Amino acid sequence: MEYRNRTALITGASGGIGEQFARALASRGADLILVARSEDKLVALADELASRHGVRAEVIPADLSIPGAADKVVAEADSRGLRVDVLVNNAGFGTFGYLADADPSRIRDEVQLNVGTLTDFTTTYLKRMADAGTGAIVNIASNAAFQPVPSMAVYAATKAYVLSLSEALWSEGKRKGVRVLAVCPGATDTEFFDVAGDGSAMKSRRTTKQVVDTAFKALDAGKPSVVDGLVNRIGAYGARFAPRRLVLAIAERTVS
């Protein structure tokens, strides 16, 4: 896919996988719309990438865990005359611990961000891309999408939704010239586990660059989904066929 003279909107762009996508897309000549809560980080990244690669980099700060936030971002992008050719739905977070002990408001934010806002962005821009006959949507799911995960039950469920939605839209989108890809990273070297409340979890992590490189290869190959890393692919495959009690026991041991 050619990215030069196209515009990519990236959510959760202030760090981690989202930031790496921004860097990779800018290096390919794409203009950027960077979206996250951390305006200072976004501005610094936008200035750096615009200077280094000669691309246009716009910043739209937003708390995407608030219902209706996606519509406001879309309206702001429209008001600036920005057409989105590539959408990267990266923003998301997970909570760690038993659901019975969780803060309900925190769970609502998790579901809204991981599912609601992602779906809002996808619905709006998929229609526009289909009308234009071109475009790409990359939704960041997780290796957790392939099995239930005790102590991260809601997170895994939201990512199963993202995977299922994206693969279905891959089939719908290809008829309209739109590529849709679900990316399923395993443990990655980001702030994710600190936000989830389990900063010590899963010490063996892939880098954000490895994840993004995997995503671009899969997008170029026209795949509906991709799991990053050989070990993660083996785990995802095994989770589909192993007895559920065994899958649950392994998942619980992995995150504990």
Can you give a write-up of this model?
It is a single chain. This protein has helices spanning 16-27, 39-53, 69-79, 104-132, 153-174, 192-196, 208-221, 230-241, 244-255; strands at 7-11, 31-36, 57-61, 86-89, 135-140, 178-184, 225-227. It is of the alpha/beta class and 256 residues long. The protein has a single domain (7-254), classed as NAD(P)-binding Rossmann-like Domain (Rossmann fold), CATH 3.40.50.720. The chain has a seven-stranded parallel sheet with strand order 3-2-1-4-5-6-7, sandwiched between helices. Helix 1 runs parallel beside helix 2, helix 3 runs parallel beside helix 4 (104-132) and helix 4 runs parallel beside helix 5. The radius of gyration is 17 Å and the shape is globular. Residues 6-190 form the Ketoreductase domain.
